[in-house]
Amino acid sequence: MPNMSSALMASTGFAESPVEQDSRLEAGFPAIESGLPTRPLLTDLSVVGKITSLLFGSKNPFRTRSTPERNRVWVLDNTAVVSSNPTAGGLQQWQAEFISCHFVQGRKDITEVVSYFADLIGIDGQAGSDAEVRDRIETRLQPFVHQIAPAHTIEVSLSSDTGKSPLKRILGPTNSNGISSNIFSIEGNDASGGETLRVTSPGFDNISANLRFVGAEGWAVLSDIDDTIKITGTTDPTWVLRSTLADIPEPCEGMPEFFQMLNQKLSNPAWFYVSASPYNLYPFLREFVLSTYPQGDIALRESSWMSFGGLLQSFTVGVQEYKVGRGTKIQSWLPKRKFICIGDSTQADPESYAELYNKHPGWIKAIYIRTPTDLPHMKQKNSPERFAKAFKGIPTSIWKTFVVPSELVDHLNSVVDPTRIIPYHTSSFVRVFAFTMPQAFDRCKERPQHIDDILRGLNRYNPETTTTFQEYVSQQCEDKFFDAYACLALLKLYQFNPHLLHPETVTNILVKALTVFPSPAFSLCLALFPASSIPYGSDIASIPTTELTESIQKLTKLNTLLESAQYDAFWSTLESDDIYADLYADVAGFEDLVRIRIAGEVGKTFREIDLSVLSGWLNLRSDALVKFCQTACGWRVSGEKVEIPANAENEAKSEIKGERVGVEMFGRVFRRGYEDPA
């Protein structure tokens, strides 16, 4: 397909690899792209202006100053890094790359284009005629049809809260795509970084960028966006268009909590987000990242495509070459920083990070690849052979694949502090939130292979495996983990074979289920018990009292107290009867595991809480309480108050939730009502 490859090269600036070509054909990208409308004329310069912009670049003598009346300008968030040359006065010299995008002011009438995409996205009847969705489509398409403004400049001010006079810089002139890139030196007093300057421009109310100073050493995170931290569906063209143009952006499962944990664990690292999305999506993606993840630079692709098919090509063509180029640029800024790279398997992230690892030895300390299981065309992309080939020659201690990020906690701990052994019940802040992060129901990283083989085959219904499962429950009690899927399989065996039921094992399963609240594990386990042992209902008085039914009743009471956040009453009840101590005697670290779960719920709900209240909720006093808050949770104790750092759960933020149901979905109901009225 030489003509198609040439067209893709022209629109993206990168060649289509054979693997990308096969993947795109399998998913039907070329067919969708060929039907997408063309973009209108996007430049406001004369032929002479275009030529001079190409010839002279940043020294273009025909430059023009952008004005609020005529132009719309974006200034991107950026990072200042330490320069190797100090100033004559001894002040630390910093350098930063400033990027601005210039357009001609005004909105274009793109009603027909919006209708086209609304119909395409609304094939399933859920979006095509929805006014709110159409408004979102138009808002996100407008940056693609704005006239670009080559050879334009803008003056920006860099200010801080220290009262110093703002620094002035002229950005531009822009290139033929309306984008400028300038590297400026900035004086500062502290080489460790941490300060943030605001970047503004008089008259341009929309310009409010952040310039963050980052020291030469420490940690940094380089992350992809699409299908790594935001659900995009990059393996399916219609899914890409729907998630990019119409949907309210949705974070990938567990990733906001994991990134918050990283921010704490790595002591406020430098953040870089690199995406194959076109730069026209910058306002949309920046708003999403700032509301959900730590602040950082967002690098997107510069495009020159003339049809909306180029939007899809940006996600799928030349991705590895582009990301390696951006990663190499970041490495040149911060060669001494220790980087953790996070991506996914839908694109070329494994190959890109592997190439960067080999290209810059010692720079990358860990590579984490998310493997989505709910997207089409993922069989080969998620295959072990693909990862073995991509990471050939790279130690397995460096890279790890995951479905949910809670699988990464132990690996992350070994990367950040390989010499430290972290006790299960007295860990850092990261451990508390790792335990409360969502996890795939049927997965358990501690599960032995022989148990996994049983669960995946017909032997899970074989009564002869009962003893094996019972021994596995004992292992869970000793090693302080819980495999809900395996425990439910054992309870199902008891249901089919009541004569095999082992009361002590049943009790241990329920006690272990308490240690993972607010998970519904306890209720799921309870649902598999015979009705004669269920401790509720109008005929509870008629239930025969046995040692097992009494145990179930007592544990159910504890579960109810935990689920209703009556933590004081939970501890009082636990200490009210010696029978409770006997019930959880086999479960190592039971009280500490419950405390960690309670702390996780508190951390999601509060920013500040009285120490006295927390004392009752955690059943800890004085020094033990303070130590738990500081050591296990990473919270700050100030007098009689406990301050909890901001995270994705405890910060108030507006969010619009909506459900769209197309009229055609009710067709069957209407037809039945007409044909057979009541």
Structural topology:
Blueprint: H1 2-12, H2 18-27, H3 29-35, H4 47-56, E1 64-65, E2 71-75, E3 78-82, E4 92-104, H5 111-121, H6 131-145, E5 152-159, E6 167-171, E7 179-188, E8 193-200, E9 209-214, E10 219-223, H7 237-246, H8 255-265, E11 270-278, H9 282-292, E12 297-301, H10 309-316, H11 319-333, E13 338-344, H12 349-359, E14 364-370, H13 384-390, E15 399-402, H14 409-416, H15 429-436, H16 449-456, H17 466-479, H18 484-496, H19 503-514, H20 521-526, H21 547-563, H22 567-574, H23 578-583, H24 590-605, E16 608-610, H25 611-618, H26 622-632, E17 636-638, E18 641-643, H27 667-675
Parallel strand pairs: 1-5, 3-9, 10-11, 10-13, 11-12, 13-14, 14-15
Antiparallel strand pairs: 2-4, 3-4, 4-7, 5-6, 5-8, 8-9, 16-18, 17-18
Helix pairs in contact: 3-10, 5-6, 5-7, 8-15, 11-12, 15-24, 17-18, 17-19, 19-21
